[in-house]
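seq:
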Amino acid sequence: MENLWTIYIEARDGTTGFGVSTGGSVASWIILHHLSRFIVGQSPWDIEKMWDQMYRATLYYGRKGIVMNAISALDLALWDLLGHIRQEPVYAMLGGSVREEILCYTTGPWPDVAKTLGFIGGKLPLPYGSASGDDGLKKNLALFRQAREEVGDDFWLMADCWMALDLPYAVELARRLAPYHLKWIEECFPPDDIWSYQSLKQALSSQILVSTGEHEATRWGFRQLLETHATDFIQPDVSWCGGITELIKIADLADAFGAWVIPHGSSVYSYHFVLTGCFCPSPRKGGIGVSVVMRYMSPAWQNLQSHGQILDKADVTRLSPLGYDHINRVGRDSFTLPEDIAHGDYRRLPTMSRSLSINWIAYRGFSFHYY
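struct:
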């Protein structure tokens, strides 16, 4: 169970932007008692200035973690607000789509189910870590051997280690998993241990790709990963790394290093970003994490839709100009843009005064189950 909080930012004309945070009551306090002073009364067009002020004002107690979670949530709500004011989807404001669809992989224990649902790959959570010793290592190997037998040779398989390994175990695991043709091994170590990531990448010599970045934040954190060649590609989470405003800079940095950007989850907020970038695995398709839970697929933030006292259908639509129906339809084969949005005419946009200011911020929370 996790505390999921929703953020509303309303402009003077009544237009509302919507953001989501997993920061719970701590992020709520930071937003309402500190960060709100940099938002209320500002122009919705000045997102860059608001981000910079929030970041600099929290340097002495922030930079990453829960503070960046709070800044990210506000940033997502601001982009949503500006999109509604301009009557454009966020991907259009970011420069427009470079691909017709997004092909997704899943994270979960049943890659065979993911394959039948039309996904391009399955990322298996690693059940046994270093503390389980050789017996646990053998059980991990058996799990991936069975998965490869079930899905065949052309389906992506990846390992999600969620910061649980030490370097000797990770090297041995990756080498012994090589016969099962893993696409990559993900987040073996804590995010600050870039030296172990460097050593693992060197030991594997690209036999299996090494990835991390889910728990990293800001362009400076990712610059360190890229400059030290500690990872083959990065996986920023737009709701944790600083929002869309910062993810743009992170992606530009990765592009300069020739590194993929495969965002971690975050539902529709990531989808808009992936649509715009040639830094994802190919010009037409990018892979981003979508969870398959208990042998069925459900959209991210699904419990927002089942708590009518918090959000109704109209509110959930504010997640994206793509709309409620497309949030629910993500993923049997792919996420395809509706024709009228993909090829819409944006030349006749309303002229809005830049003096339009932000009136208020609301922050609500409730608990939801992952299962």
